[in-house]
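User: quick one, fold this
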Amino acid sequence: VDSALKLSGATVCAEQGTTTEQNVADYFTANKMKYEAVVIDSADSIIKAFDSGRCDVYTTDASALYAQRLKLTDPAAFTVLPQIISKEPLGPAVRKGDDKWFDVVRWTLFSLIEAEEDGITQANAEASLKSQNPTIRRFLGVEGDNGKQIGLEPAFAYNIVAKVGNYGEIFERNLGQSSQLKIARGINALWNAGGLMYAPPAR
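Assistant:
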């Protein structure tokens, strides 16, 4: 039985004035399920209410659920359900109008994703400089001048990966199974591994 169906008739905690409050209302209405909304004005207050049994379910952004679960008295006793009921993508943000900084941030993210796809890690980044693959040589700044258009040196992607690893390594370290949160990659996997993460080529 779909775990979501078991939620019919549940009391659901949601933070007041957020998209989450509307999302849960839409979800239960669309699936013709009854529920009782427990709308609370802050995440910390919701955790206290949920932990005390005031509501059966707590809904918010998926990544936040994993983080908030750590604040419960017995985190292991609670499960984050796999259903994603809305699209709430999270990513880096910059001040409006700062186009140069926006380009740097955007291509930093692209580089982290591209590095994972090309198999370049923090551990092998230096060795990859000797690769004969023209795509990798261009990406790492051995050939060409990819960084020039955004005001960075040719080896900017190499410098990033050598310091912090590729996208997958960063995800695993901070959000994945090696972290306290233990979030599955899911749609955050690369496009060629069933996910949505995709970067344009560095050219």
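User: anything notable?
Assistant: The beta strands are 10-15, 35-40, 57-58.
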